[in-house]
Write a structure and sequence with these properties.
mainly alpha, 10 helices, single chain, two-stranded antiparallel sheet, 2 domains
């Protein structure tokens, strides 16, 4: 009987449009939450900073609550199908199940397990399932792009952001490899950074990743053991492809801007 009443109440809740003001504000908040969690969790996994455990768990609980509410909101948000707004409950649920439902559920489960196994070195890596939320970021941004024309500089900003995101991922694992090699000489020990604050090691790691990606490197931070040499080789290969792609995108963007300027003059 209680289930029947809950189902009846659920059906009375109105369906939101993707362009609804509340939905846009909510999505922006979720977008910030996903970005901050990706930043925070990657730091916690690869740098193991000395964060306050109480505030750490409090923030994770807040994130879990917000993402759980977001799942319910998505069941009540219409979607576009070939330019037509779909507001049928069954079609909305089916579309959500087929696209992002499992990603959202796994992200929440990953955070719950992360809190439960935060003291265990290997089990805490289950939080990597949270990376599935990258697809949600893409969906939210695409929805904003359909509503607002951000212009060419937005695309330029997007390209630069992609470079920074890739550099940050490479930097995190660059530090983690050295952090795990406790019985070997590493780039951390060579620069006397093994006991430095996490923020100092983070700055050095980001610097190494950017320099390796966009140039051949200055040679001030170099691999010191086989594991670092292998990873550095991979970074050079991956970085050259990413940087080449970004240069091509920036070149195309500047060409389009120049062509539009010429059309306006004539």
């Amino acid at each position: 009987m209680k289930f029947y009443h809950l189902k009846k109440i659920w059906k009375t809740i109105p369906i939101l449009d993707p362009t609804n003001k509340f939905k846009l504000i909510w999505d922006f908040g979720i977008l910030l939450l996903i970005f901050t969690n990706l930043f925070y969790l990657s730091l916690e996994l690869t740098f193991e900073p000395d964060f306050n455990k109480f505030y750490d768990k409090l923030y994770n609980c807040f994130t879990i609550s917000a993402l759980s509410i977001d799942i319910l909101i998505k069941f009540k948000t219409s979607y576009y199908d070939h330019g037509i707004v779909m507001k049928n409950h069954y079609k909305i649920s089916r579309n959500y199940y087929q696209n992002e439902f499992m990603i959202d559920v796994f992200a929440v489960i990953a955070l719950i397990l992360h809190i439960s196994f935060s003291a265990h070195t290997y089990y805490k890596w289950v939080v990597i399932l949270f990376l599935g939320k990258l697809k949600c970021i893409k969906t939210i941004i695409r929805n904003y792009e359909n509503i607002v024309d951000f212009g060419d500089f937005y695309e330029l900003f997007g390209v630069m952001l992609k470079v920074l995101c890739v550099a940050r991922i490479l930097a995190c694992f660059w530090h983690y490899i050295a952090f795990c090699e406790t019985d070997k000489i590493t780039w951390l020990t060579v620069h006397n950074l093994q006991n430095a604050d996490w923020s100092v090691k983070y700055i050095y790691s980001i610097y190494w990743a950017l320099v390796t990606m966009v140039t051949v490197g200055y040679g001030d931070i170099t691999p010191q053991n086989p594991s670092e040499i292998i990873y550095c080789s991979f970074t050079i290969l991956a970085g050259s492809m990413v940087f080449g792609y970004c240069l091509n995108r920036i070149g195309s963007l500047l060409t389009n801007i120049d062509e539009r300027d010429k059309e306006l003059k004539f």
